[in-house]
Write a structure and sequence with these properties.
Layout: H1 11-20, H2 34-40, E1 77-81, E2 91-95, E3 108-115, E4 125-133, E5 143-149, E6 154-161, E7 169-176, H3 185-191, E8 212-218, E9 227-231, E10 234-235, E11 241-245, E12 261-265, E13 284-292, H4 298-305, E14 322-326, E15 334-336, E16 342-343, E17 348-351
Length: 352
Amino acid sequence: MAVPSSGTISLAGIKNEVDEDNYNAGEEYTSISLTTLAAETTFNTNSDSVPNSSTPHGMSEWYGYDHDAAASFTDTKAVSKTITTGVSNAITFTDTDDTFNFTENEAWTISFWIKAGWASNLNTNIHFIVGHKSGTSYQLEDGIKILYNESNNRLSIRYGNKPNGSTTWYKDAQWLFHSNSGAYAAGYAAAGLGSTYWSASNRGYVGNNNYTMITITKAATNIASSLKLYWNANAAGSAPIQTNAGTAKIAANPMSATDNRLWSLGSRGDYNGNQDKAGNSTATVYNDVTMWSKELSASEVTSLYNSGSPMDAETHSAQSNLIGYWKFEGNGNATRSNDNFTIAGGSAIVNK
């Protein structure tokens, strides 16, 4: 609790704020002076009000001082994924401590802000986020993929396990955005794209700086219907296209909770070539990636969207379940996690 911003304040209360981070802590002191307080205190410059350390000292200098104030939230940078594919241009990290080894029976949420750079008629997939067993030749071994199929204007979320060619199983949920009828109507309303496909020239509903927040949630049930999509804070309804393939193979081939997973942003980061384009016009830009160890509720997604202005996710009501947070304010280092993104080649930190 900070020092009051007006009225009568006490030296003991100021000392409590400095020592206990609480003006009303109630500790008693026998000898205090403004001079010793100013001389002995390392001021927290994150506070909106900071005392003047030069003499003469005055009580009013301490009005509003908050000794444990957090740094203000900044959101001026993002990461640009070059349209050139391959390992040398990837944005990746390998999860060596198994923090993000989500399995088929776990609840989780992945959210990110994206500014589309691709033009229409890309006629292929753009892999937004991919996480799978490191070193595998199968991109769905212990894998989760969030991708946009431009040729069909569908956002797809797939998870499952393909340890070899014969034991594949996966769950897939897809939302189509350009049809305002039947099962597709909710996605049409959520995205705001109209009858035209998603691209740099048709962004649909956006927040600040033309970014869209895409949020995928999964309940603790191993079925495609456990997946939900939110466009900004708009629920896209039940996935009109659902696949539950290889159901009989799950017991013998569950997703591993201990494999090191390679996570890639903007395209697959484990192969060279053109298996997965990142765009065909200008670079697509990503920002404020978060991963959560729970299925965020609709109201929690709305809070995270914050009326279109990215918030400090560490202040979110569900922050105890926030296990990964990358703001890209100057680098790929994580705010919440031990895993930092490596940004290679033409991919780079850019002004938001």
